[in-house]
């Protein structure tokens, strides 16, 4: 009797080998994701370094302190809205309204603070609240009404743009108080304040995506919405919050633009969508969802800004900048498809 007991206790469970195999497969998948991500980020840094060397050799002004800080200042605005867009795209959605929401936030701030003389400390939350509400409406339409985000945010683009132009009567509203202008024009030990704000936004969203349960839900939703729903994740709610985050970051970008220009206008910042999308795609975030990081987006933003800055220093016409960015998006998408189709050798297969 005792011998039988010992034999039974020493025998492995029937599904132990299956569990071990599943665990090993999970570790391998994790290793593949981490290695691909590392290679991609190293490649981005290499591309950025090559650009800096090229423009540094072509222009004696590129590596000056003033120009480096100018690159940081130019990058900060697009970086902030691109960070929020990254969250949305990881969730397998898109936000086409971010440029218009920038303009709306600046216009609301201008009307409230300048025309109605509301204190800056109150005017800023009002402006941000408007664009977060716009993001919530887009998210609600995507979640409850089942309108794809491409359409709901495209509609919001028109609504926000029109509302901004109506608020400002199609003109610029000038004359912000000094405390508001400092948002976009001051610096801390020589570092532009907008660049510091952008850094804070990136750190916050990086922690959100990598250190919170909600971040895991965003990746799960973008990776496989049906499986996420079976796992108990409120997929629609996750996408709604993601679009609200995008609205918030667009609003912060709009406040920076309006403070730098000392005016609110329905057109200020409206054209930043292309640069933001380019930065996100270059940074390795998949437009199909489930893959991406704000770290990659940050590098993508600096790459885009470096190209724009370098072309200006080389006296290349502004029109070519848009063409170059468009071509970069195409190349980045082609590389993304190649990476997906490629098989890693050996134990990583």
Explain the overall architecture:
By secondary structure, the protein is mainly α. The chain has a single domain (38-338), classed as ABC transporter involved in vitamin B12 uptake, BtuC (Orthogonal Bundle). It has 14 helices and 4 strands. It has helices at residues 2-10, 16-58, 65-90, 98-115, 120-143, 149-168, 178-185, 193-211, 213-223, 225-230, 235-261, 273-282, 294-313, 318-341, and strands at residues 173-174, 187-188, 191-192, 263-264. The strands form 2 sheets. A two-stranded antiparallel sheet has the order 1-4. It has a two-stranded antiparallel ribbon with strand order 2-3. β2 and β3 form a beta hairpin. It is globular, with a radius of gyration of 24 Å. The termini are far apart. Residues 1-12 and 343-349 have low confidence and may be disordered.
Name the CATH architecture: Orthogonal Bundle
Overall number of strands = 4
Helix content: over 70%
The major pleated sheet works out as:
2 strands, antiparallel
- Strand arrangement within the widest β-sheet reads 1-4
Into how many domains do the coordinates divide? 1
**What is the overall number of helices?**
14
CATH topology description: ABC transporter involved in vitamin B12 uptake, BtuC
Tell me the Rg in angstroms.
Answer: 24 Å
Multimeric state: single chain
Question: pLDDT under 50 segments (min length 5)?
Answer: 1-12, 343-349
Summarize the structure.
With 349 residues, the chain is mostly helical.
SSE order and pairing:
Elements: H1 2-10, H2 16-58, H3 65-90, H4 98-115, H5 120-143, H6 149-168, E1 173-174, H7 178-185, E2 187-188, E3 191-192, H8 193-211, H9 213-223, H10 225-230, H11 235-261, E4 263-264, H12 273-282, H13 294-313, H14 318-341
Antiparallel strand pairs: 1-4, 2-3
Helix pairs in contact: 2-13, 3-8, 3-9, 3-11, 3-12, 3-13, 4-5, 4-6, 4-11, 5-6, 5-11, 7-11, 8-9, 9-11, 12-13, 12-14
